[in-house]
Amino acid sequence: MALQESGEMYLETILILGKRRSFVRAIDISEEMGYSKPSVSRAVGLLKSGGYITVDDGGCIALTEAGLAVAEKIYERHTLLTELLVCLGVDEKTAADDACRIEHHISDKSFEAIKRHAGQSGEHKRWSK
Amino acid sequence: MALQESGEMYLETILILGKRRSFVRAIDISEEMGYSKPSVSRAVGLLKSGGYITVDDGGCIALTEAGLAVAEKIYERHTLLTELLVCLGVDEKTAADDACRIEHHISDKSFEAIKRHAGQSGEHKRWSK
DNA sequence: TTGACAAGTTAGCTCCCGCTAACTATAATG
DNA sequence: CATTATAGTTAGCGGGAGCTAACTTGTCAA
After folding, report:
1. pLDDT tens digit string along B22-36?
2. Nearest chain A CA: its distance from B60 CA (Å)
3. Which of A29, A99, B5, B48 is the most exposed place for a label (fewest CB within 10 A)?
4. C1' of D11 to CA of A42 (Å)
5. By C-alpha distance, which of A14, A114, A25, A124 is closest to A64?
6. B4 touches strand D (CB under 7 A)
7. Nearest-nucleotide field for A4 (CA, C1')
8. Left, alpha or beta for B106 (phi > 0: left; psi -120 to 50: alpha)?
9. How far does the CA of A65 sit from the C1' of D7, in Å?
10. Residues 6+ apart with CB under 8 A from B96
């Protein structure tokens, strides 16, 4: 079961929610992403059977190592890409939205290259004209 | 009928094929994209009814104004993003593949910002460290 | 003329991933 | 205790976009 863009989004959301609250349930994901409960329910089932998350009796969701790895990878892309776009003069909202889509479509190689460039340009400052 | 990523890819491919040969048929698209004839047939039908292409009696496909606008927009993104990634040290193949996916997910705002930055950095040269 | 190939279409399948409607199970509350 | 709210699940729909199998059509060469 290879992860789709959709699965990556769920994992990233679980990571983010976990930073904000002590536990994450399906309903929290549902509210955060604006998806219906059944949609989340199915996604959670798939991620669980794929070994990306665990769900305890109380319905609390936790990332496994595999899930955390994916979530952190995507989250890093999201953060850096957003920053970068903002530095280039894009408004926060647009930057975040775009980063949110691009983060799933960029290869490790390209992302590392961008990261290197951003780093070299003085902690991103050179990205602002 | 709003254009999906898939539709954009077909239009871009038609544009590119048109630069290489005098006419473009469904079969050419099929070979270029590696998709089956029925898949292309359906896509062509949708693009036609969406007003993005015209198909003459001989099966030759041409972009309408609307189709050309989309194709050129996507193609410009493709070209610039690929160049950029290559400048950052990414190999041609990876750069092109990534550009090919990102080109459909970036907003006009962000793309313009990147373009501006690339332009200012001395015709992309500053992108290479 | 006939037979073969090339191009395109039709029918129908699969997977992904949203959705609603409706049900279940568990608390919380009057 | 009965009611209501909350959380989750099941069943089934719809649209996007690939695929194969099989059919049609037109052209061209033996």
Report:
1. 999 999 999 999 999
2. 33
3. B5
4. 13
5. A14
6. yes
7. C16
8. beta
9. 26
10. B78, B82
Q: Alpha-carbon distance B87 to B76, whole Å?
A: 16
To the nearest 10°, the Cα dihedral for A63, A67, A69, A70? -130
Q: Which residue is nearest to nucleotide D21 (CA to C1')?
A: B38
Which tokens go with A36? 């219906």
Measured in angstroms, what separates residue B39's CA from nucleotide C13's C1'? 13
Can you give the pLDDT at residue B1?
Answer: 64
Round to whole Å and give the CA distance between B69 and A98: 21
CA pair distance B116, B77, nearest whole angstrom: 13
Q: Give the span between the Cα atoms of B46 and B42, in whole angstroms.
A: 6
Instruction: Give start and end residues of each alpha helix (H) in chain B.
Output: 5-20, 26-33, 37-49, 65-87, 92-102, 108-120
What is the residue-averaged pLDDT of chain B? 93
Give the domains, in start order, of chain A with CATH numbers. 5-68 (1.10.10.10), 75-117 (no CATH)
pLDDT digits (tens, 9 = 90+) for B79-122: 999 999 999 999 999 999 999 999 999 999 999 999 998 877 64
> Using a CB-CB distance cutoff of 8 angstroms, which residues of chain A are in contact with residue B107?
94, 97-98
User: Does B105 contact A106 at a Cβ distance shorter than 8 Å?
Assistant: no
